[in-house]
Amino acid sequence: MKILIGSKNPAKIKAVQAAFNHYSSEYVALDIPSLVNSQPLSDRETIEGAINRAKGALATHDGKIGIGLEGGVEKTDFGLFLCNWGALVEEGKPPIIAGGARILLPEEIAKHLIAGEELGPVMDRFTRKENIRHHEGAVGIFTNGQINRADMFTHVAKLLVGQYEYRNRK
């Protein structure tokens, strides 16, 4: 089965491969735009980004399914929460959607996002590292390495795989 991944981000690729590890699959990572803001600021926008990546992957290449994974934030009365969403698209069927765990971002990070900055560069400055989003991610920093970005997206990807298997059971 050929699985099209709507991102070249290593954490997202690793997550999809881990979720589909019980399949004999070929993975194709594609640079598909989310068509939402570079820093999604709501669940709705983050879900739209994931769906757009999945649909875009399937529309531009030949494959069985398209997977889109998107990270964002959601503002609540308790503060700004990190969120992640995923979508799995098959030709002629509605998207399968799943969301993952959430953590409250520290105010010193949240204020930059509310002011219009993107989480990745903010985290790079905060940690004095480069490309945090391709490695442990903000979740890895703020959970002291207990959960990293690939782990968070693997959880979402497994939710997608399970729904895919349920929908296509015979």
TrEMBL record:
One of its GO terms (molecular function) is metal ion binding. Pfam families: NTPase_I-T. Residues 6-155 form the Non-canonical purine NTP phosphatase/PRRC1 domain. Keywords: Hydrolase, Magnesium, Manganese, Metal-binding, Nucleotide metabolism, Nucleotide-binding. The keyword Nuclease does not apply. Its EC number is 3.6.1.73. NCBIfam families: PRK03114.1 (NF002850). This is inosine/xanthosine triphosphatase. It comes from Cytobacillus horneckiae. The lineage of its organism: Bacteria, Bacillati, Bacillota, Bacilli, Bacillales. The gene is yjjX.
